[in-house]
Amino acid sequence: MMDNCLGAQRSRKIQRAFRHCKVTILCLLLTVVVLRGTIGAGKFGTPEKDLAEIRDHLYFRKRAEPHRVLEEVQTTSENDRAGADSNAGTNNYNEFDIKKILVDEESDDLKHDPNEPYSLGPKISDWDEQRSKWLKENPSYPNFIGPNKPRVLLVTGSSPKPCENPVGDHYLLKSIKNKIDYCRLHGIEIFYNMALLDAEMAGFWAKLPLIRKLLLSHPEVEFLWWMDSDAMFTDMAFEVPWERYKDFNFVMHGWNEMVYDQKNWIGLNTGSFLLRNGQWALDILDAWSPMGPKGKVREEAGKVLTRELKGRPVFEADDQSAMVYLLATQREKWGNKVYLENAYYLHGYWGILVDRYEEMIENYHPGLGDHRWPLVTHFVGCKPCGKFGDYSVERCLKQMDRAFNFGDNQILQIYGFTHKSLASRRVKRIRNETGNPLDVKDELGLLHPAFKAVKVSSS
Amino acid sequence: MMDNCLGAQRSRKIQRAFRHCKVTILCLLLTVVVLRGTIGAGKFGTPEKDLAEIRDHLYFRKRAEPHRVLEEVQTTSENDRAGADSNAGTNNYNEFDIKKILVDEESDDLKHDPNEPYSLGPKISDWDEQRSKWLKENPSYPNFIGPNKPRVLLVTGSSPKPCENPVGDHYLLKSIKNKIDYCRLHGIEIFYNMALLDAEMAGFWAKLPLIRKLLLSHPEVEFLWWMDSDAMFTDMAFEVPWERYKDFNFVMHGWNEMVYDQKNWIGLNTGSFLLRNGQWALDILDAWSPMGPKGKVREEAGKVLTRELKGRPVFEADDQSAMVYLLATQREKWGNKVYLENAYYLHGYWGILVDRYEEMIENYHPGLGDHRWPLVTHFVGCKPCGKFGDYSVERCLKQMDRAFNFGDNQILQIYGFTHKSLASRRVKRIRNETGNPLDVKDELGLLHPAFKAVKVSSS
């Protein structure tokens, strides 16, 4: 397909035209399931968030196999034991599933014996020893690069294919430019993944094998920061309060009550999180992954999650629900090392932020990271790379431009420029140039980041 | 336009359809001018390169104003004095030019008085003093981060607009992913520009005001590495031989004879170069920029360059021709600090490299940087972001995928994977996972880069 890109474009056009026919049916299903979803969640979560999360997963699945939405709407009420089992970790495949897997696009990448339970890789139980030995032997790669400043690797990525929605790649480009800027200012390295390392863990589960591989390959990395491609930094001055997490291994945006008491599927968000390199990380990845394998396992696990979690619509198992379920059911095992952060937006739901940017500019300043100036604006449910031409995606794209420009203004101000408006790509000067450029101080003190970063984190 | 992206897509579709009508006429003109070009250059440069360079500029200009190709074919023989003057630095505008500028897309960004000669910014003559004072006062920002290891900022970028050719953004994304990988391995920071800082210097001249701004804002940066968005790293292991340039300020791929003796417009390439931060850099930027301002100045200067340089086709002044002209006419002033490198591919023309990747894999290994394993493969003339659906761009896209995968294989091998073929996005394992990941050494020793980087540069 890549051998003939113009051909590929043409065929994509045809595919698109074909998909359009499905949109009508899907809108109908959307309404049905959204209603079911809100009724289920309204009491507990923020309905607005639920709607977005539900849209999110519907988009996601629609792109994969639209017609299956129907099947699931029909099978919701079932309480399938097999589902419960598979969720417990035993993957009981049957002829049908194997055929299903073999017709899959990436099927020939599939080495794994369907009779064996899925594993992310060889069991490792002495990673802390291996790692600290390595760190001793390689003093030129300290896992801390300053006081309270761990070495951090930000990991993100996108599909190796061009987006179904052609404009989507432009937003992926803006999203990585935005991350490059934040990471340059805060001394963070970036790994952008475009490869599917494990065909079974495609979709929202792909991050798990990738993260494990990177932790094991980079003992010098203390914290791995996963960030979805549809999340952007909107506070370029905010430094993560690393010292706050010195006794924790896993930091996600969320609320203890919503996860542990309500088992609410949006009690936390897995679109932007910090994971400390160590044996504990390998262990929780192993405990997190069993619901991931594509096909029967993921579908049956989805039923269990929908049954057990508050407000979750019907769809195959996703990594976020699985994490809520894991923490809620095994709090004693993991809870003491998990920090659910809500003092700032490690993840911030775009729906409640994007319309307030002007108000933030009016009243506040970068560096706060919270509702006054969010660190991250996450376009949950927008899937700009997917083909879905309804109004909400149109709104998404407009708002993604605003979020990008909102963040980009903090970079441009360093050099004396700003966007003409949050809606404009165009820039204008905010100060005249001088013959003594080094006397100019940017208000945010972002010009000399590494230093600033450490200073901020220790203040 | 960005306020309504779907609307924008529709309107782009219409524009595209409209442009298609022009392709036929253009192919005709293409042939005419390509012939003229080769006859002019064949004797001196590599005809193959000339053809690509000529295609390059034709694409470039076609996208801007196709019909003008004709005018210029007609006016080639003219030897216009006004052109010579404008090239000498005096910009003589007239009513017509000003009107022309005012109808320009970015016209309202234009603050500059057309009666004043163009300037990149306030005159600075003591930058070396200012900078060394700053470096003394900020020891936490050394301009050298290791023995023979200067602090380097790689600067690249692309238009703030989505590509006219929708698949183009996907190639920009792959291109920046490729740069992120090389720069992470070699301890280089990245600045990705998406803003037009100076409307007058749009197009191939936009890099000049950007580079000046970055040099003045980042005194800690010793070398700025400019790289076009259509250039990709194909040798992830090659470290630039920094010590070789200790007495030089400006490094470009090129040949002394072709620049100084032949005045050949492709005697050097400005798509990938190294510029040392200092007063000398500000001075050469000032000497380089006078042919840049859009409109009459750039057009007249183009005539001078075509008249004075070997093998140059007819089109408005471009930054590369202007640099050849500057060095050829003022060698005594600049030559002693300019290093024209051809021992490795700081820039490598794709046409002579991409078909040899399999042969390179067969016979050589990364780290050589030259014809055996090129550091950079530059897709001169491909303009994947521009709308141009002829065969050569189809070939470009296919070859850009091959170049990306060729470079990406060197990253994937670190983690035990490789692309199934240079034509495939898909990856496969090249070794089994182990319980002792730290005992695995990647053949290229790229796993722990900063160290490697310094080691290579001093070997």
From TrEMBL, chains A, B:
<keyword id="KW-1133">Transmembrane helix</keyword>
<dbReference type="InterPro" id="IPR029044">
    <property type="entry name" value="Nucleotide-diphossugar_trans"/>
</dbReference>
<dbReference type="InterPro" id="IPR008630">
    <property type="entry name" value="Glyco_trans_34"/>
</dbReference>
<protein>
    <recommendedName>
        <fullName>xyloglucan 6-xylosyltransferase</fullName>
        <ecNumber>2.4.2.39</ecNumber>
    </recommendedName>
</protein>
<dbReference type="GO" id="GO:0035252">
    <property type="term" value="F:UDP-xylosyltransferase activity"/>
</dbReference>
<keyword id="KW-0472">Membrane</keyword>
<dbReference type="GO" id="GO:0009969">
    <property type="term" value="P:xyloglucan biosynthetic process"/>
</dbReference>
<comment type="similarity">
    <text>Belongs to the glycosyltransferase 34 family.</text>
</comment>
<keyword id="KW-0328">Glycosyltransferase</keyword>
<keyword id="KW-0735">Signal-anchor</keyword>
<dbReference type="Pfam" id="PF05637">
    <property type="entry name" value="Glyco_transf_34"/>
</dbReference>
<dbReference type="GO" id="GO:0033843">
    <property type="term" value="F:xyloglucan 6-xylosyltransferase activity"/>
</dbReference>
<dbReference type="GO" id="GO:0005768">
    <property type="term" value="C:endosome"/>
</dbReference>
<keyword id="KW-0808">Transferase</keyword>
<keyword id="KW-0325">Glycoprotein</keyword>
<dbReference type="GO" id="GO:0005802">
    <property type="term" value="C:trans-Golgi network"/>
</dbReference>
<dbReference type="GO" id="GO:0000139">
    <property type="term" value="C:Golgi membrane"/>
</dbReference>
<keyword id="KW-0333">Golgi apparatus</keyword>
<dbReference type="GO" id="GO:0016758">
    <property type="term" value="F:hexosyltransferase activity"/>
</dbReference>
<keyword id="KW-0812">Transmembrane</keyword>
